[in-house]
Amino acid sequence: MKIIKESNISNIIIVSTIFIISSLMLFNGYFFITKQYEILDAHIEDTKKTFVENKRNLLKREVDAIIEFIQFKKSTFPISSRSEEKKLKEEVYAWIRHIRYGGQEHNYIFVYQVENIKGGEQFAKMLINPNRPDLEGQYISDSYTDENGKAFRKIFLQDIHEKGFSFVEYLYKKPESGEIRPKVSYFKLYKAWNLIIAAGVYTDDIDEEIALAKATFKQKMNLEITSAIIIFLLFALIANAFAVMLGKQIERFLNSYHAQVQQKTWELENLNKTLESRVSEEIKKSREHEQLLIQKAKFIALGEMISNIAHQWRQPLSQLSALLITLKLKYTMRTLDQQSMDTKCSEAETIVEYMSHTIDDFRNFFMPNKDQKAFSIKQSVEEVLRIIGKSITNQHITIEVNIEEDAFILGYKSEYEQVLLNLLSNAKDAIISSGNKKGKIIITLENHAKSTQLVVKDNGGGITIRPIEKIFEPYVSTKEQNEGTGIGLYMAKLIIEKSMKGRLEARNEKDGAVFIVEVEKGFKEALGGTPL
């Protein structure tokens, strides 16, 4: 059942538009909200890092300030006795005990009196700890761990031993609530009094900032979602109105188009009534034109054949004429004896037999084959050269044949030779047209594992038609209009590719054209059917 019809196309456009817009808006809304939460998470992470970094700076500043204060007190009040030093220490310790920083009562300073900087079970006494007064004056161990099993005293002792200070994060009891909360502390060694002065802050204060940031974000998101819904509804209203207008326009267009189709259908029906007669007439004209071209090609081929026969017979006729003149002269001079007569008659018979053999060569060449047979390429080349060779060499064109190893192919021998004859004739004409006084045609046989290639090269200047493959199209010729039909190479390609399942290609090289005739190897019948 067809869903889309001309009658409901407007409704389909409207519904599709609403569906697409709604899907896009929902997708964009989901993407927007997800992105905002990612931004919030990144902001919270940055806030935590900034918070901890600020707290670390605060701790370092407070501890450094205390050490600077102690050094100031020592330089201001010179100590001459142990009692004076003890009094100064008690004054400083009392001052440190009451120090609070960062606006928080639980931010205090604690101090260790170091006994062994390398650590141990009694590496120090707890000198000041407002959070744990029960530990003051007691020896403490570096093996003490927090709720997570972290030996934070070993960590800060190792850092102090290496660089004189340490930042350590661990869990510790918070003064107001007594709960175990995360804390970061800064420890620094004051060598003059063999003290480790430390300050710490609880980092759970950032949870309030994060909660505030989340509340602000939710408020912002609610506002953004409300705005997005309003924009969506407004956009959907505009889109629906546009879809209705577009649907009506399409409906009017379809009605108009339907009327035009009906008109064209009526015209097409009238045309179909007379089409058959028109096609028959055009086919008849085309066939007549093709017959004229084929007839012209036949006459040209016949003329070339007669020309080749004339070239082949010219020398034998000259020899026969000289022989007859010799006989006549001897007869006139009364020196013609039986032996001379027999010798000259034998020579005449040889010449006539050669001329008769030439006629047989031409007749066999133009006689079509009905069955495919395996034949020798070398023999075919020799037979073609017997027909056309004289007409080529008489134009002062050299023919070079390079066939080191013969090959046999399965196909129509006369058609294959017709292709070769056409290629050699075209090569001859190209060299003559180019005006090259040292014309040369090279015929090379290249054997491969499963195929054989017969390559015909000339130095006639090459093929000027572009693209070069166009020369294999019918009625395309490089010769003058009255010199060629343009179907020779077309027929040659058909013979090789259709009849013999091979390949005929052409390309230009340095001084001329190269034609490659590639055919699969057949069977060597002369050797009892041995495959090549």
Automatic annotation (TrEMBL):
Membrane-topology descriptor: Multi-pass membrane protein
Q: What are the UniProt keywords, alphabetically?
A: ATP-binding, Cell membrane, Membrane, Nucleotide-binding, Transmembrane, Transmembrane helix
Q: What subcellular compartments does it reside in?
A: Cell membrane
The record, for SUPFAM superfamilies, names: ATPase domain of HSP90 chaperone/DNA topoisomerase II/histidine kinase (SSF55874), Homodimeric domain of signal transducing histidine kinase (SSF47384)
Listed under catalytic activity are:
ATP + protein L-histidine = ADP + protein N-phospho-L-histidine
One GO term of the cellular component aspect? plasma membrane
Keyword Nucleotide-binding (UniProt): yes
What the entry lists under Pfam families is as follows:
dCache_2, HATPase_c
InterPro entries in UniProt: Double_Cache_2, HATPase_C_sf, HATPase_dom, His_kinase_dom, HisK_dim/P_sf, sCache_2, Sig_transdc_His_kin-like_C
Which top EC class applies here?
A: transferase
All residue ranges annotated as the Histidine kinase domain in the record: 308-523
Query: Which spans are transmembrane here?
Result: 12-33, 225-246
Give one GO molecular function term.
ATP binding
Which EC numbers does the record give? 2.7.13.3
Cite the PANTHER family for this sequence: SENSOR HISTIDINE KINASE, TWO-COMPONENT SENSOR PPRA
Instruction: Spell out the protein name for this chain.
Output: histidine kinase
What's the source species for this entry? Sulfurospirillum deleyianum (strain ATCC 51133 / DSM 6946 / 5175)
Taxonomic lineage: Bacteria, Pseudomonadati, Campylobacterota, Epsilonproteobacteria, Campylobacterales
